[in-house]
From TrEMBL:
Alphabetized PROSITE patterns for the sequence: MI
Coiled coil: none
Residues annotated as signal peptide: none
Transmembrane segments: none
Listed name of the protein: MI domain-containing protein
């Protein structure tokens, strides 16, 4: 209780009585509780009623519920719009699920699956009937360059093999694997040992020359160039090998010089006894 007077600074809820005293509210203020006083432990005191204004928590829940209802209505409207227009639904699903890419989007068919592009087969190029395939216009590759030393070594190996194996079928490749300008060397290397050997060696070489001439593996000019070196030394060779003229005649006839008098005359003219050589060639 306090005496009335000016209300400035006083309690606005205080009421003044008839005697001039004022009271704060309708009840006497209670003294503060003492520390350690547990007499009111567990009691529930009723407080002032809670007023729910526009800024209260429950008001915020009402607003949230209203927003959820509005979202539900908008989503249902969107669903109905997409169900009426399936093309819009397809575009929306593609845009939402697929990240941005530079690749073109796949087209969806009636089944909802992407339509893959049809694979195009290459057109078959049929050749005309009854005719051989067109010949290739590419030119054959030129053989690699071989040194003269390698050629001589190869010829020596072939000659040694020829006299060891003595098989004309296996010797068929001796001329073909040599270039045309080196084939006269093979003729010279075959004639030289046959002049100093036995008659069987001369007959073997003569048969090989006849085989090469019939197959066109060695030309008459190549044979002539191969016989010339031994024809120049035939007189000297005949001193140690008396049958050298006979063996030379066998090989010359095998190469076909019995039908070419001009070339045979040039080869026989290298010897001092050319008439004997010509007579031997004609007699075989």
């Amino acid at each position: 209780m306090s005496r009335g007077g000016s209300r400035r600074g006083g309690d606005r809820n205080a009421e003044s009585g008839p005697d001039g005293w004022t009271a704060a509210g309708s009840a006497v203020p209670r003294p503060p509780p003492k520390s350690g006083d547990l007499s009111k432990f567990g009691r529930i005191s009723k407080g002032a009623p809670m007023v729910m204004g526009p800024g209260s928590v429950f008001a915020g829940k009402k607003d949230t519920k209203r927003d959820s209802l509005s979202r539900t209505n908008s989503s249902s409207n969107l669903f109905s719009m997409l169900s009426q227009n399936p093309e819009l639904a397809t575009d929306a699903i593609a845009k939402a699920s697929r990240p941005p890419s530079r690749r073109p989007s796949a087209a969806f068919g009636q089944t909802g699956l992407p339509e893959l592009p049809m694979l195009q087969r290459k057109k078959l190029q049929l050749l005309p009937r009854g005719g051989p395939p067109p010949a290739s216009k590419e030119e054959p590759e030129a053989p690699a360059h071989v040194s003269e030393a390698d050629i001589k070594r190869q010829i020596n190996e072939d000659v040694n093999e020829f006299f060891a194996v003595r098989n004309l079928e296996e010797a068929d490749v001796y001329f073909t694997k040599l270039a045309e300008e080196h084939r006269f060397r093979l003729v010279d290397k075959l004639v030289a040992p046959a002049l100093e050997g036995k008659e069987g060696d001369a007959l073997l070489v003569g048969g090989f020359f006849a085989q090469a001439a019939s197959k066109g593996q060695c030309s008459p000019s190549t044979f002539e160039a191969g016989f010339m070196p031994m024809a120049e030394f035939l007189d000297d060779i005949a001193i140690d090998a008396p049958n050298a003229f006979k063996y030379m005649a066998i090989m010359l006839k095998g190469a076909g010089f019995d039908k070419d008098e001009a070339r045979l005359g040039r080869i026989a003219g290298k010897s001092l006894d050319s008439d004997e050589l010509l007579q031997l060639v004609s007699s075989y």
